[in-house]
Amino acid sequence: MSENTTSAAPEAAADRNFRKTRRGYVVSDKMDKTVVVEVEDRVKHALYGKVIRRTERVKAHDETNEVGVGDLVLIMETRPLSATKRHRVVEILEKAK
């Protein structure tokens, strides 16, 4: 019976749902292991066709506390980690100057 449970574990990891990744700039790193990332989305207006920039501020988990303000980061959706935190930092794409 233990043989069946060990073979099922790798299959469960392979069947994991798709998780969205987004990129944005860090605007705050004052919390411990948490950063605030501003994600920009460009949307075309339905009637007039003008491209509008919409920004959203999301909190992301940073386990190593190595991300700083101004860094361009790649974040990924994850399970709820706190009341407001639903993303985690995958990698730092560009460090701030």
- Sheet of most strands: 5 strands, mixed, barrel
Q: Cα-atom Rg, whole angstroms? A: 18 Å
The helix-strand sequence is: HEEEEE
**Secondary structure category:** mainly beta
Strand order of the largest sheet: 1-2-3-5-4
The end-to-end distance, rounded to whole angstroms, is: 56 Å
Instruction: Enumerate how many helices there are, as a single number.
Output: 1
Shape: globular
| Beta strand % | over 45%
Question: Which range best describes the helical content: under 10%, 10-25%, 25-40%, 40-55%, 55-70% or over 70%?
Answer: 10-25%
Q: What does this entry look like structurally?
A:
The protein has a 5-stranded mixed beta barrel. The protein contains 1 helix and 5 strands, in the order H-E-E-E-E-E. 13% of the residues lie in helices and 47% in strands. Strand 1 (21-28) and strand 2 form a beta hairpin. The radius of gyration is 18 Å and the shape is globular. The chain has one helix spanning 2-14; strands spanning 21-28, 34-44, 51-61, 72-77, 85-94. It is mostly beta strands and 97 residues long. 12% of the residues are buried.
Relevant terms:
97 residues, mainly beta, five-stranded mixed barrel
Quick summary of this structure?
The chain is mostly beta strands and 97 residues long.
